């Protein structure tokens, strides 16, 4: 039974996704929708991490229930950089790169949830299955947002 | 004919009526200079342009000047009544300070010029930018106050001719969520209900909708029902003690930003008590199980905690809407301009879908508009939608639009949803939009975080054209100013919040060289040399009626079908509700009778969006979810507001409007009776909050947020504790000093609902401190409205002799 490995891996990737979202939020503080929506979605990862730590106990795992984020100084630095470059269009390309990265991160995490759900099913762990089925769609929504935002933002960035 | 001070009595006299009866007629009129009706040269048919209600009226003309107005007794909307803004607002047309000739910036100063020079500068810049960068450099920011003919012409020129995706209006601030919520629930825009639902309803629920002040004649209709036999019960959701709240059976005053929480609790009760129509839901809706699962998590006790509203009041409200036999619901800015705007408004739709209360007398759903012609920006493609409610995400719709416009399909941008206003300003900020044409709106008072907007429009690299009827805070930032004709000076049609189309005829000539908006657009297209795919001129018409006929063709077969309407048909009688075609030549009172929707994947306007992230739903997903085109019960989780009170900013700021003013007061501030009724900005606080801080009525306060500061005198009102209110009407064109401490939007945050893209005006953390004691100075806030004082006795708001308007009641009516 390798469910513990699946949980541990998911805990790692949700933490990573959380960091990617918050980092992206800070880098694009002046793009108000990106700033706020990435923060909202980061909250999903934060809750997932806490619940994964709880779920891991049954399998002898001791996982940190607190999601890792960028250090406060880095957060402030990135926000300030965003404000200072807010009048330039080069950050547009950075946004596209960030969205592409986020799409892949979220897609990977969604697959990890898929894995956990499959494992929970074969092990007949109903509670774990419900948990995975509850969180998986939220992670999918992150990758859908990244794709949609890229589709919406790219024409202007590429045309100007 | 009685004469009533309509500043003191904004809603006039009662004409009580009972359920199912016809609302009695009452003809209101106001003529200037003591004129009588016999002295008028002619009456010219029109409708109101200072709110979204669409009151039918006739313009009185004497010696080729507008001298007054009279309500149209035959009109279905108002049955002769007019509100204070209708009665007095027209005087702004005659103001001596109208813009009468074009202006151009020379050596940093705006100087008078001729049309030729002004249009050369505009067209020259556009041509240069199209060569240098292409259509992505060009943007249009319009209004909710033009006519169908103007919008449709502009939509064609911008989307079809230039091929830019950047066309939106200030309707983004007022009506975007109404459209978005309807698209989420019914996959298509279109107001389901009718004002006549007031005549039949046994419960009227008003969500964030202070109808008494935003649509005073509709409130008059409700007041007349309340005064008659078997009156309806009212539910009011509003943090302020509005006239609606005072009349309500149940008044809920939730903490700003918690509307989704409250709505989910109401739905929780409706589902738990089985107050829904299972047969209707099974036959006509998708998404019930997901909604049920979602709202199970929101019992009244949880909502009571978050919203700070007693749980038993939430239960009482749920019982009211859950057991109503004919439920009318209306929604406005308290939901649209607040946190999770679309998600909250959609839950109101869910109440009606769950209860099967759509398309029947009294079972009305009205997602309201703020502006008089906001509806038309949505229909005609001037506000971030494509004309005729076509779906940007459906190639067949783009192909059809290209056929109507005789263009190649690729010319019409449809790679993404049309750019919304807040994003247009963002693109201007980062420099990829370099030409911005602002029409009939004043973003330097009305957009959030004004310091930022000033810095965007102040950029050298951005060419700004402003088309308006007065010099405003915004014209100060223009490179070219174009003087426009307004209501009464041009002919056209427009549609109110219950789909009633009115004709508004030209009564007098515009002042000086001012020109109708459509003529300006036509001149622009001609000079730009815009052509269709066969090399013929792109725009085929040269007058308003021609534009209307063009629009009718574009609307043919779409939900907003106008093909059965002509100018002649609109002349003389009442306005007509769309859809109106050969099949239903008298128009359509209510949409969605018998559970038939416009949600079929091939027909619908939109596939919907994620309620939290705003990401559009893909066509294939929509087809899988709703193959048969049913109504969509869309669930939403509650999210805490993005800016919460802190130690430094312990209060929540909400902004709003008063009955006597419209927008940034460019018109109402020039109507003496309206201006005198609410002459200066004020701030409202609850008695407990004021007492805690030792503040008194009339004290001069500074209200601050991380974005800026405003000075205003305190009115201790019936607003809920923890919240301060500022009216957003006051800017700087008539300010006593040259500072920037008067406009409420100095304080608001740049953030918007990810679904509707409507900015947040109702949730920002704020602080107050006293600058000076009242010392006998009184607060300039009306006493007749939501800003009524709750402490002491203050002199009531009166208009006096100059505000006396005529009121002609039917024989036997009460006065």
Word description of this protein:
The complex is a heterodimer of chains A (160) and B (815). Chain A contains five helices and no strands. Chain A has 160 residues and is mostly helical. Chain A has one domain: Up-down Bundle (Ferritin), CATH 1.20.1260. In chain A, helix 1 packs parallel to helix 3, helix 1 runs antiparallel to helix 4 and helix 4 packs antiparallel against helix 5. The longest helix of chain A has 34 residues. Chain A is elongated. Chain A starts with a helix and ends with a helix. The relative contact order of chain A is 0.16. The mean pLDDT of chain A is 91. In chain B, strands 7-6-18-17-16-8-9 form a seven-stranded mixed beta sheet, with helices on both faces. Chain B has a six-stranded antiparallel beta sheet with strand order 1-29-2-5-4-3. Chain B is globular. The model of chain B has no long low-confidence stretch (mean pLDDT 96). Chain B has 26 helices and 29 strands. Chain B is of the alpha/beta class and 815 residues long. The interface between A and B is medium-sized, with 30 and 31 residues.
How do you describe this structure in short?
The complex is a heterodimer of chains A (160) and B (815). Chain A is an all-alpha fold and 160 residues long.
Any descriptors?
heterodimer, A: mainly alpha, Ferritin, elongated, B: 815 residues, N-terminal domain of TfIIb, Rossmann fold, Dimethylsulfoxide Reductase, domain 2, 7-stranded mixed beta sheet, 6-stranded antiparallel beta sheet, 29 strands, 17% strand, globular
Strand content of chain A: under 5%
* Main sheet: strand order of chain B: 7-6-18-17-16-8-9
Shape of chain B: globular
- The beta-strand count of chain B equals 29
Query: In sequence order, what are the helices and strands of chain A, one letter per element?
Result: HHHHH
Tell me which CATH architecture of the largest domain in chain B applies here: 3-Layer(aba) Sandwich
Q: For the record, what CATH class of the largest domain in chain B applies?
A: Alpha Beta
Helix fraction bin of chain B: 25-40%
């Amino acid at each position: 039974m390798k469910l513990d490995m699946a949980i541990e891996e998911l805990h790692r990737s949700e933490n990573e996704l959380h960091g990617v979202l918050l980092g992206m939020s800070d880098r694009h503080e002046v793009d108000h929708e990106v700033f706020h929506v990435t923060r909202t979605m980061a909250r999903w990862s934060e809750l997932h991490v806490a619940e994964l730590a709880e779920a891991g106990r049954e399998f002898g795992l001791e996982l940190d229930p607190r999601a890792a984020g960028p250090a406060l100084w880095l957060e402030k630095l990135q926000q300030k950089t965003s404000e200072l470059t807010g009048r330039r269009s080069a950050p547009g390309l950075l946004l596209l790169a960030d969205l592409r990265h986020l799409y892949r991160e979220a897609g990977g995490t969604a697959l990890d949830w898929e894995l956990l759900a499959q494992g929970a099913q074969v092990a007949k762990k109903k509670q774990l299955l419900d948990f995975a089925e509850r969180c998986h769609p939220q992670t999918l929504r992150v990758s859908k947002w990244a794709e949609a935002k890229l589709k919406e933002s790219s024409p202007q960035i590429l045309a100007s | 004919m009685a004469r009533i001070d309509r500043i003191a009595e904004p809603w006039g006299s009662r004409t009580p009526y009972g359920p199912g009866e016809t609302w009695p007629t009452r003809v209101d009129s106001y003529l200037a200079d003591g004129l009588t009706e016999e002295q008028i040269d002619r009456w010219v048919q029109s409708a109101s342009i200072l709110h979204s209600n669409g009151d039918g009226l006739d313009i009185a003309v004497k010696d080729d000047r507008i001298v007054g107005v009279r309500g149209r007794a035959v009109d279905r909307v108002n049955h002769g009544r007019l509100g204070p803004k209708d009665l007095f607002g027209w005087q702004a047309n005659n103001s001596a300070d109208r813009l009468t000739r074009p202006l151009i910036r020379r050596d940093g100063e705006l100087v008078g010029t001729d049309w030729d020079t002004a249009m050369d500068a505009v067209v020259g810049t556009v041509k240069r930018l199209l060569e240098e960068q292409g259509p992505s450099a060009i943007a249009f920011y319009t209004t909710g106050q033009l006519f169908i003919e103007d919008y449709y012409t502009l939509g064609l020129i911008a989307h079809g001719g230039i091929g830019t995706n950047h066309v939106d209006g200030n309707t983004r601030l007022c009506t975007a969520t109404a459209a978005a919520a309807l698209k989420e629930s019914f996959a298509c825009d279109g107001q389901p209900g009718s004002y006549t639902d007031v005549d039949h309803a046994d419960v009227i629920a008003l969500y964030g909708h202070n109808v008494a002040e935003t649509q005073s004649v509709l409130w008059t209709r409700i007041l007349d029902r309340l005064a008659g036999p078997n009156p309806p019960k009212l539910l009011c959701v509003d943090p302020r003690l509005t006239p609606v709240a005072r009349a309500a059976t149940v008044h809920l005053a939730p903490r700003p930003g918690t509307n989704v929480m409250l709505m989910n609790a109401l739905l929780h009760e409706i589902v738990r008590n089985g107050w829904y129509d299972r047969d209707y839901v099974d036959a006509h809706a998708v998404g019930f199980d997901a909604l049920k699962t979602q709202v199970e998590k929101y019992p009244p006790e949880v909502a009571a905690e978050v919203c700070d509203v007693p749980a038993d009041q939430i239960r009482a409200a749920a019982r009211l809407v859950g057991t109503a036999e004919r439920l009318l619901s209306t929604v406005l800015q308290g939901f649209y301009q607040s946190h999770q705007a679309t998600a909250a408004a959609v839950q109101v739709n869910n109440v009606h879908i769950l209860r099967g209360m759509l398309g029947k007398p009294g079972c009305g759903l009205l997602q309201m508009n703020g502006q008089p012609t906001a509806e038309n920006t949505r229909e005609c493609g001037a506000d971030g939608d494509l004309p005729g409610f076509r779906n940007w995400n459906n190639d067949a719709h783009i192909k059809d639009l290209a056929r109507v416009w005789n263009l190649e399909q690729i010319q019409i941008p449809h790679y993404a949803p049309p750019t919304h206003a807040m994003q247009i300003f963002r693109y201007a900020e980062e420099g990829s939009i370099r030409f911005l044409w602002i029409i009939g709106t004043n973003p330097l008072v009305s957009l959030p975080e004004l310091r930022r907007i000033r810095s965007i429009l102040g950029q050298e690299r951005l060419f700004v054209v402003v088309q308006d009827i007065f010099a405003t805070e915004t014209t100060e930032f223009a490179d070219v100013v174009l003087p426009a004709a307004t209501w009464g000076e041009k002919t056209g049609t427009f549609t109110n919040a219950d789909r009633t189309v009115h004709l508004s005829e030209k009564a007098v000539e515009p002042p000086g060289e001012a020109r109708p908006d459509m003529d300006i657009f036509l001149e622009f297209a001609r000079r730009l040399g815009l052509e269709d795919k066969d090399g013929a001129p792109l725009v085929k018409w040269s007058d308003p009626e021609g534009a209307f006929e063009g629009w009718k063709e574009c609307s043919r077969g779409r939900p907003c079908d106008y093909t059965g309407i002509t100018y002649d048909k609109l002349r003389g009688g009442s306005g007509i509700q769309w859809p109106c075609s050969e099949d239903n030549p008298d128009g359509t009172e209510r949409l969605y009778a018998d559970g038939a929707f416009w949600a079929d994947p091939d027909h619908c306007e939109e596939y919907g969006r994620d309620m939290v992230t705003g990401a559009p739903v893909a066509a294939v997903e929509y087809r899988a979810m709703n193959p048969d085109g049913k109504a969509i019960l869309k669930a939403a989780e509650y999210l805490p507001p993005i800016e919460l009170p802190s130690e430094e900013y312990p209060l929540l700021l909400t902004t709003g409007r008063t009955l006597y003013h419209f927008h940034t007061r460019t018109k109402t501030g020039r109507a003496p009776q309206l201006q005198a009724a609410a002459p200066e900005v004020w701030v409202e606080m609850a008695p407990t909050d004021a007492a805690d801080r030792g503040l008194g009525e009339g004290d001069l306060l500074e209200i601050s947020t991380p974005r800026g500061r405003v000075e205003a005198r305190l009115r201790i009102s019936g607003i809920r504790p923890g919240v301060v209110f500022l009216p957003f009407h006051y800017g700087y064109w008539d300010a006593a000093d040259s500072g920037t401490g008067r406009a409420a939007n100095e304080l608001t945050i740049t953030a918007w609902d990810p679904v509707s893209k409507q900015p947040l005006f109702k949730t920002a953390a704020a602080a107050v401190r006293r600058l000076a004691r009242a010392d006998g100075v009184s607060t300039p806030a009306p006493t007749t409205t939501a800003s009524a004082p709750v402490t002491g006795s203050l002199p009531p708001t009166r208009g006096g002799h100059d505000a006396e308007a005529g009121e002609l009641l039917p024989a036997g009516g009460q006065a």
